[in-house]
């Protein structure tokens, strides 16, 4: 789950926190613990206060670092006895393709995107490191991680040009943000990238020391798809559904929305991340967006979702056998909600059906899908019963 920054500081730059918002999460955490549920909490999840976007320009403004540090210290002190697992920024690398969600501003002109994007990232890296330091000081037994959107990048063929292009795409999208947060320094491959795109980061004295000292305890990541790339591609080759680009992979099937389904890619991802960082991993998002139909008897037989999740859970088991240290798994998501990527309610992920539709109609009545009962057995047996 996530805490909404705006519930705690509605504008983001106030000096005093909103007690009503703090009390709301007290009730949430108390209810979770009452049912034996250990919360895993994301601090910032695509919802920075709109005031910070309009008045400060989002994360490209250095002042936001101060506001964020104030926010995290408030929630750490308030919930230090209720939450021990934290993550800083949800899918931090997604700002490369969706800056308004992750960085708090829109790109007006394509040629002007580089400097503000990577300056904003620097501010987030400093903020993440400050949050790690505060979390360890305020909640000594805590674990705090980063969270990235991970999609392994395959070269379309063995042409060395395509292999190199796939490597560069994977370095920038999958590893840049993680390298800084996990290893505590900017990766060497970014030096050339900054030079070629005329990026000069403004840093305060001590920023690099803060980043070095504030490395995360584990890596959380979302996994929905893999990505296939070639250096020169036609419009006809493009993968229609993958929000992070690429071309169609002829070996993979796709979801109703064109997201390519690749369970083996999760095993590959886990191995790549663990080989690179030697830190515990946590799959915190994984699921299938699909159309669900209610049968005449009221049941929802989402066998396709069960198949998707079963194969991905098997892939995690294989990765563990490979030697990967995997802390846990949380699916996306337990209940139907509006899809962030398309704005539709018809793109359903949940184990629980919600009677709500794209046109706004619906009673909000809830129904348990077939996957609900299947997943209940999965988590009861810790994956032994699939």
Automatic annotation (TrEMBL):
Keywords: Glycosidase, Hydrolase. InterPro entries: GH, Glyco_hydro_1, Glyco_hydro_1_AS. Gene3D superfamilies: Glycosidases. The active site is at residue 285. It comes from the Bacteria. The keyword Ribonucleoprotein does not apply. Pfam families: Glyco_hydro_1. Belongs to the glycosyl hydrolase 1 family. This is 6-phospho-beta-glucosidase.
């Amino acid at each position: 789950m996530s805490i909404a920054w705006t519930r705690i500081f509605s504008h983001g730059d106030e000096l005093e926190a909103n007690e009503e918002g703090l009390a709301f999460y007290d009730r949430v955490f108390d209810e979770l613990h009452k049912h034996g549920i250990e919360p895993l909490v994301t601090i910032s999840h695509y919802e920075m206060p709109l005031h910070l976007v309009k008045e400060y320009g989002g994360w490209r403004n250095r002042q936001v670092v101060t506001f964020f540090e104030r926010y995290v210290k408030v929630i750490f002190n308030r919930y230090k006895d209720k939450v021990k697992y934290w993550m800083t920024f949800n899918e931090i690398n997604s700002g490369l393709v969706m800056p308004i969600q992750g960085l708090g501003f829109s790109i007006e002109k394509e040629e002007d995107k580089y400097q503000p994007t990577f300056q904003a990232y620097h501010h987030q890296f400093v903020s993440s490191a400050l949050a790690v330091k505060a979390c360890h000081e305020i909640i000594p037994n805590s674990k705090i991680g980063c969270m990235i959107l991970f999609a392994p990048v395959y070269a379309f063929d063995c042409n060395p040009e395509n292999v190199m292009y796939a490597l560069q795409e994977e370095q920038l999208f999958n590893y840049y943000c993680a390298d800084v947060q996990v290893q505590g320094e900017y990766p060497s491959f970014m030096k050339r990238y900054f030079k070629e795109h005329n990026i000069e980061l403004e840093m305060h004295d001590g920023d690099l020391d803060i980043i070095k000292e504030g490395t995360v305890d584990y890596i959380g990541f979302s996994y929905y798809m893999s990505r296939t790339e070639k250096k020169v591609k036609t419009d006809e080759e493009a993968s229609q559904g993958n929000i992070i680009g690429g071309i169609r992979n002829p070996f993979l099937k796709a979801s109703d929305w064109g997201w390519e389904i690749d369970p083996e890619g999760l095993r590959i991802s886990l191995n790549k991340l663990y080989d690179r960082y030697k830190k515990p991993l946590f799959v915190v998002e994984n699921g299938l967006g699909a159309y669900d139909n209610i049968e005449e008897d009221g049941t929802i037989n989402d066998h396709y979702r069960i198949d998707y999740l079963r194969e991905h859970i098997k892939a995690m088991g294989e990765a563990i056998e490979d030697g990967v240290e995997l802390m846990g798994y949380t699916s996306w998501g337990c209940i139907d909600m509006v899809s962030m990527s398309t704005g539709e309610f018809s793109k359903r992920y949940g184990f629980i059906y919600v009677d709500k539709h794209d046109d706004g109609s619906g009673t909000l009545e809830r129904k348990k899908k077939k996957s609900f009962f299947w997943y209940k057995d999965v988590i009861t047996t810790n994956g032994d019963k699939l």
